[in-house]
What does this fold into?
Amino acid sequence: MKVQHINPIYMAARDVFHNMFSIELDKGELSVVERIEPEDIINVSIGITGDLKGTIIFSFSEKMVLDLVEEMAGMEFKEFDKFVASAIGELANIISGNSMTYFSEAGYNCDIVPPQIAVGKNKTFSTATKKTLVIPMLADDKSFVIYISIRE
It folds into this structure.
């Protein structure tokens, strides 16, 4: 996987969290895995098509999702429901869409597919590549993980 495939997604996540939530994200230590087995309970998968093909998976704790959606909607949520699922899917869509803009500026013609949301523990995801990059996105109490599996 090339750095040109990683930076647009990282920059989009950083920009969206800064603009929507006034949260400054830092990159944690990158790693590579062969199996995606998120520790967090809410996972949003977005497919990439076009010059690049693959998947971006955003993995969040339930508390973080409820907090983010509360800020997005301006109302309190006590449990993960259809509205919360739709909102966190839209957040992943915004980040992924913004990353496609960065890819376009780098000369790639790509698009995204609608998000799929998987809720629960002990989930395993398969991707089109043998190895997946793991990027911990760190903020005080609002940390999450992005899994990137992309090929040209």
